[in-house]
Amino acid sequence: MSSKKLLPPKTGDLSDWYTSVIALADLADYGPAKGTMIIRPYGYAIWERVVSELDAEIKLKGVDNAYFPLFIPMSLLQKEADHVEGFAPELAVVTHGGGEELEEKLVVRPTSETIMYQSYSKWVQSWRDLPILINQWNNVVRWEKRTMPFLRTSEFLWQEGHTAHATHSEAEEMQMWGIKTYAKIYRDFFAMDGYEGYKSKSERFAGADNTLTYESLMPSGKALQACTSHDLGQNFSRPFDISFQDKEGVMQNVWQTSWGFSTRSIGGLVLAHGDDNGLRLPPKLAPIQVIIVPVKPQDSGLVEYCKKLYDALNGQVRVKIDMRDDESFGYRLNKWEVKGVPLIFKIGNKEAEAGQVTAKRRFDGIDVAIDASEVLTATLAQLSDIQDTMLKASQQHLMAETREAKNYAEFKTILKEHRGFIKVYWNDDPIIEKQIKDETKATSRCMPLSLQGGKGIDFMTGKPSKDVWLFAQSY
């Protein structure tokens, strides 16, 4: 039976489709502990592509990589009240070690502000010690009650940047750089458009003065918080005494930021681009950009022709030949469709004799004839075009599924009939946001940077407002 026949339609039960495609495409498997996930080599190869590109941007900014401990003494986590309150329901706590009860409980890292900032307090004495620009690639644990591979797991991989600055304006610039860099990665590599903007008071990171987010919209009409960047103000530097003597000899507390991008992004990638036949990977992130599938792997002449194509591409394209002789030609084509390989070369005797390639574009299903003498140039052009086409499709989807509501009645009608992003004027109010969430399951996703500058009427209260917000139901 082909992989596609085992895959339920995406238009049916989306959760069923999502978990099925992750398994059939060999992205991940369930771990033995509840809520954990094994990232398989094919899935991890996608993450490695993300790490490579994002790490280069981080280093270009002058941020250094480091590593801090997994275990955080409970007393450190409790130093910032909002922070510990925000994470308390999700904490995994170690109470015993070496067969004995611990004198102080240890929290398994949910995020690293507290463990890192204890060290920052020792490292910073003078303005000359600033800024501190540190990032770490690690795993974190948040004890989620409802889990789904990549999107929400008890343990996940990410990078978390943590910086300390002499002035608030420096910190604000760093926070903005974080979200702009993430947006660039999403658009240029994931081919996923979205909105950059500020989170509401209710939705911002626990312990932050404000949070910037990148919000994408999935085909289901639900939003995905794709990553975040936080202005921590002096909320951690005061309790951790991260202070310095400025150029005038006055003692001051530092201003801080933190920003993170996780394996949740792969879940968004699957949802955003997948279809009824499986994954559709953008070429820049695809572990295999071209799969060469000979009709008869036992045919030595055909295999030799495939190897010539491989040699012409290898080094500039991530390419592989499927030589499995225990699977039918149709099964192998379906298998690589499910895995989302951007270009599938279908090679039979007709192609070999004519010196051609029949290349199927996974994203739109179009077959393209390529002359073998120009295979590298033509393949690179096709991959570039597929990447651009996928981003344009995402941009069009975002635009088409962003609608405006002038009042709560219109808001509820749009949510019922379309979902998607709903653009409203609103004066950020946690009490009103809770009411909206309780009644509609929608929350504010962000105050988008790109949609500000006008004046309107608050869609809930009728009072004047100058802030445009996006609301949506979300994952």
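(the above was protein one; protein two follows)
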Amino acid sequence: MGSRLMRRRNVLTGVASLGLAALPRRRLAAASKPLRLGVLTDLTSLFQDITGPGSVLATQMAVADFGGHVGDRPIEVISGDYLQKADVGAAVAREWFDQQGVDAILDVSNSAVALSVNTLAREKNKVLLASGNITNRLTDDACSPNTVHWTNDAFALTNAPAKILLERGLDTWFFITMDVPSGADMERFATEQVVKHGGHVVGGVKHPLNLADFAALLLQAQVSKAKVIALCNGGSDVINAMKQAVEFGIPQGGQTLIAPAAYITEFHAIGPQIAQGTLVTDVFYWDRNEQSRAFAKRFGEGMKGHMPTEFHAGAYSATTHFLKAVAVLGDSADGKAVVAKMKEIPTDDPLFGAGSIRPDGLKMHPVYVFQVKTLAESKSEWDLYKQIDTIQASEAWRPMSEEHCSLLGKS
């Protein structure tokens, strides 16, 4: 793929400061081989604001905070764009593993790309830290001893807001879903909640990524008379769909919009005047506590004032825990062993607090339900959420008993 697809960024190599002339030969050999992280992300398309350059920066911040080295090995960060294509993403990942000496790949915000890299990481015995993806398949039928699914997933995103809306009597639903695995996951889990609480799905349509015109799809949702229109998409797709829905008068006519996979950067682009009242499930909000605000301030200095999404926080958190595991092991060569050590060590960082990694590879932490503020409530450009509920980790995530992960001894 070459330089056209990859932007290499070396972080804090600091080789000169090691005093190489005085080091024994073994330490010289270790110092000459960097621990390399690859952020495979969307640098140019619909997910670039929720992951993209921000995920690269967050990974660099975690490396810097860790000290830039694991033992004598300098840590380097490189980045690449998968161009919304699974074959391109797999080719970049393969070149990184085979030629660039990459030990772990992070982010991977397209679910089809993530599933491809998941297979490749297992084949090469490397590590995938899926910090920017939401498909539940990574801890279900496609689970791997070389993969940790960090940050959030489709079950956690849809479970809480669907339950809240159904309890309010909003019991007929229509889905507008992006035609990718993560979109299908969101629709499936929301549908399960609707049926569980006696509601009905009255219709649904699917769309390709990067759709500009949602008029025909929104018209179908409008004429369905569904009380809830669920936008199971993300990035620029959810921004376009929500803005056009308001232009067509859909929420003004009494139908409720829900966007489970919309994040702070998208609500910033949509604006509280349009998005006000929307329920949001998130595991991180930049203004939630002192630690999140401190991280957001540093992050914003490198991102022209933009605040971090949960996926940026996830990249920081996943990188930190990966480096801790490598430091304990003293080596990164055996990806399966690194992931096993990551599961063994309790997780703890300033953005997610204390947590753990389940046997299926799912990172566990609390999930929060927010509501987008009204224009009157919002006091500044990024003051967009108010917290209305906390769901503890034991209740927030899909039970392992409902999964078909081979790591759990199931068929």
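Reviewer note on protein two: The chain has two domains: 2-152+289-365, 155-282+368-400.
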